[in-house]
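User: Can you recover a sequence for this backbone? Please restate the input before giving your answer.

Assistant: Of course. Working from this structure:
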């Protein structure tokens, strides 16, 4: 398998964790999101993934985008260890938490959105920062509350799931933007547990060959 990603991309970080968790080997192909106006906009990458976003996973002839679809594909192809529980209720909880991050938090502070704020909309760096922190706080406050009903050692019970795989990169991202995490003790505890696992530690941005 080949993974087109970027060391700091939280969506690519999710896929790296899943690949590691399932002990699958892959070739990492860096797409620099900033250099030369962003390699994700190059004709070569656009031909591979017209959304101009990373990650893209190639598995022989199959080309997939959307980190959650990629991870569900891996979970179905390589079911052990599971990233989505069998139980219908637990599975829905895992998916809902993953989507809370992937749909309702992450896109609001994605690079192209922030570039649009400071470019065409002419917001200052300070206004951009306020936007990022506001949406992180809204999202994390709800997530912290949602954990009351379902968390154990990890987001849903005591097994690692897709929800944890989404949470850890989003927290990395939030810390990069300077969010004060003290209001989220449950999130912090889960992230600490995850980071003790090799699958998470080896997927960390700073561990990647293209990290600068
Ligand atoms: N929903 C997509 C999001 C992909 C995405 O937004 N990737 C970001 C990096 S985390 C990206 O490529 N940004 C480039 C840009 O905004 O130009 C997924 O989960 O794969």
């Amino acid at each position: 398998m080949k993974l087109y990603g970027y060391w700091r991309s939280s969506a690519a970080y999710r896929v790296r964790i899943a690949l590691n968790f399932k002990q699958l080997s892959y070739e990492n192909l860096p797409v620099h999101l900033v250099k030369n106006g962003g390699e994700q906009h190059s004709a070569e990458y656009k031909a591979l993934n017209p959304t101009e976003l990373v990650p893209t996973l190639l598995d022989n002839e199959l080309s997939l985008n959307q980190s959650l679809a990629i991870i569900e594909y891996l979970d179905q192809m390589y079911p052990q260890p599971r990233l989505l529980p069998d139980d219908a209720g637990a599975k829905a909880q895992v998916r809902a938490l993953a989507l809370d991050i992937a749909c309702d938090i992450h896109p609001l502070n994605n690079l192209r959105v922030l570039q649009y704020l400071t470019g065409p909309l002419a917001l200052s760096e300070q206004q951009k920062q306020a936007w990022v922190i506001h949406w992180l706080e809204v999202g994390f406050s709800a997530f912290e509350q949602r954990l009351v009903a379902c968390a154990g050692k990890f987001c849903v019970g005591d097994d690692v799931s897709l929800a944890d795989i989404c949470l850890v990169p989003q927290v990395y991202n939030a810390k990069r933007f300077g969010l004060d995490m003290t209001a989220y003790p449950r999130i912090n505890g889960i992230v600490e547990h995850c980071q003790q696992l090799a699958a998470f530690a080896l997927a960390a941005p700073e561990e990647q060959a293209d990290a600068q």
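That completes the design. The beta strands are 2-5, 27-30, 56-59, 62-65.
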